[in-house]
Design a protein that fits this description.
EC number: 3.5.4.2
Structural class: alpha/beta
Enzyme class: hydrolase
Bound molecules: adenine, zinc ion
Shape: globular
Strand order of the largest sheet: 1-2-3-4-5
Distance between the termini: 25 Å
GO molecular function, one term: zinc ion binding
CATH architecture: Alpha-Beta Barrel
Number of helices: 16
Main location: cytoplasm
Order of helices and strands: HEHHHEHHEHEHEEHEHEHHEHHHH
Helix content: 40-55%
Radius of gyration: 18 Å
Cofactor: Zn(2+)
Strand content: 5-15%
Number of domains: 1
Number of strands: 9
């Protein structure tokens, strides 16, 4: 269709995707075989995709699959697989999350993870002229000390990491649990974001902590903010962007939050559309934009605004932004 072509040809930025969430079943199998490891049970004979129906059943597939990732080459190949796909979809700038604790907790060195991922971003710059920056996420279902140790391990690689985030299971793991870690990260010069997932039990309180106690520069998901006019104003005033993931939303809850996303967009909140875990939710950025524009009958001008928002809240210099918008 016309709108599909419009989405495809538009130069885009993606700000919310987890590299480990780009691990396609075919790549799991390939890496398992070359490392002489068993092929994880979630990977079927065919590449028919993973099976799960909410956040915890997703995470129960997501973590075990990572066991195949062992060497610098493995991490490189995973990032390269995403970056080539992103380039095909005309993404010219990407900020990509990674979960070091999911690897260091299995005995993989931090250096192995970061050097594999980083080398792929350099190659994408050289081969495609595409820029990509890494955001290190802490796993919120692990303790704050483990996050602090991870931050310390990352300090020698500061020039390769633009910011820090917080992901994994949000239940009973509020932002305040990581206040000290995020304060230290800010002191070290990292930009800050964190997941405030949709429809969490204490959604508004978590958003409040992220904005007021942690002082985040961005929020991942965060659409429950529509319920609180005061926080909504703070986000608009500070220009705090929200990185939304409609297909992911549609899998983890009944409602993909389209009405909230559209309202926020029209209220002038800097909302953006992203793929989250494209191999798992089975949609890269273009598919997410097609999904939401179809469901909400978005106009071309809405789609352009979503991309202006993405470049606008991207963690790049003002001068670099003017190259894109
Ligand atoms: N880690 C990777 N993907 C995630 C998601 N969708 N929610 C929470 N943590 C994640
Ligand atoms: Zn996410």
């Amino acid at each position: 269709s016309e709108i599909k072509e419009f989405i495809g040809q538009m130069p885009k930025a993606e700000l919310h995707m987890h590299l480990e969430g780009a691990l396609e079943p075919s790549l799991v199998r390939l890496i398992a075989q070359r490392n002489n490891l068993p092929v994880p049970s979630s990977v079927q004979e065919q590449d028919s995709g993973y099976s799960f129906n909410d956040l915890s059943s997703f995470l129960a597939v997501y973590y075990p699959n990572m066991a195949v990732l062992q060497t610098t080459q493995d991490f490189h190949d995973l990032a390269w697989s995403y970056l080539t796909k992103a380039h095909e979809q005309k993404i010219v700038y990407a900020e990509i999350f990674f979960d070091p604790q999911a690897h260091t907790s299995r005995g993989v060195e931090f250096a192995t993870v970061i050097s594999g991922y980083h080398s792929a971003t350099i190659e994408a710059q050289e081969q495609f002229g595409m820029s990509a920056s890494l955001i290190m996420c802490f796993l919120r279902d692990m303790d704050a000390q483990s996050a602090m140790n991870t931050l310390t391990e990352a300090l020698p690689y500061k020039d390769k990491i633009i910011g820090v985030g917080l992901d994994s299971d949000e239940r009973d793991n509020p932002p305040s649990k990581f206040a000290t870690v995020f304060a230290k990260a800010r002191e070290e010069g990292f930009l800050l974001t964190m997941h405030c997932d949709i429809d969490q039990k204490n959604s508004i309180e978590h958003i409040r902590q992220a904005v007021e106690e942690i002082g985040v520069d961005r929020m991942d998901h965060g659409t429950n903010i529509v319920e609180n006019a005061r926080l909504l104003n703070v986000v608009i005033e500070r220009g705090i962007g929200l990185t939304c993931c409609p297909i992911s939303n549609s899998v983890v809850t009944e409602d993909f939050k389209g009405a909230d996303i559209k309202r926020l967009l029209h209220d002038g909140v800097k909302v953006t559309i992203n793929s989250d875990d494209p191999a798992y939710f089975r949609g890269y950025l273009n598919e997410n934009l097609e999904f939401i524009s179809e469901k909400l009958s978005l106009t071309r001008s809405d789609l352009v605004q979503l991309q202006r928002n993405a470049f606008g809240i991207a963690w790049i210099s003002h001068d670099d932004k003017s190259n894109y918008i």
